[in-house]
Amino acid sequence: MTTRSDDSPMTAGLAPSELEDLENRPPAQPGGELTAEVSGAPGVAIMVRDLDAFYGSRRVIRDVSMDIRANAITAIIGPSGSGKSTLLRCLNRMHEVVAGARSSGKVTYQGVDIYDPQVEPSAVRRTIGMVFQQPNPFPTMSIYDNVAAPARFNGLVKGRAAQDELVERCLRQAALWDEVKDKLGHGGTSLSGGQQQRLCIARTLALEPKVLLMDEPCSALDPLATLQVEQLMSTLKSQYTIVIVTHNMQQASRVSDITAFFNMGEDRAGYLVELDDTRTLFTNPKNQLTEDYVSGRFG
Known about the structure:
Layout: E1 44-55, E2 58-69, E3 73-77, H1 84-90, E4 101-109, E5 112-113, H2 121-127, E6 128-131, H3 143-153, H4 160-173, H5 177-180, H6 193-205, E7 211-215, H7 223-236, E8 241-245, H8 249-255, E9 258-264, E10 270-277, H9 278-283, H10 288-294
Parallel strand pairs: 3-8, 3-9, 6-7, 7-8
Antiparallel strand pairs: 1-2, 1-4, 4-5, 9-10
Helix pairs in contact: 3-4, 3-6, 4-6, 6-7
């Protein structure tokens, strides 16, 4: 499961240093959408079956099977080193970008095997977008271009009027428009940390994803900015499927509908202990390990 360097899309999933020459590249042609005539199980966006992930010879997650519900927020919790972020990266084929990384098993989005050789990694990453722990607006671009340029590169929007509409719509979706509408020409890094994270969310939304993966999106933010991002997630779930990795169990209990608890085994590989409705998992877990973790006995 390797990918060519040109398979990576112009998305928030990649570091700014990889995208600084965005404006100097010719526009990509639209296409490569991740679609299928037969959808997956009703109400399920992503199905994971028998997933293992490796860095070189070291297995970091093992035997993970789980369903991710459509139009819901699924929180992934667990101690450090239990494979939470690696799982997230396997859901949109970013794991394989790391040298020596590989995975086995099956991940399907609405019935499509995202690791099928006929499926373009770039199409996967447009459909299943990623927002990272540290806000990473493109440092050489304005607020406006942080949103418009990736969509323009991918051939999703043409002409100034269409770009204007896209920028306003995505910034409104990210609950940022009213704060930045009078300074769209300012640099993206001129914003506060919380605003930068919402800008990165807007940038991801501009590529018209169906799923949002969020890897500890609030860990670098103050309480007020954290609340704003949590409120944003709750609003977006009516339109998107959201999966969030968090070390903050209070956050998981506040914002998520479903929670998955991961732990590290004796082989130091992460594995899924329990997956359930969030209220049930926190108040009446089925597994003693889950009970011990959510009650603060370890982790």
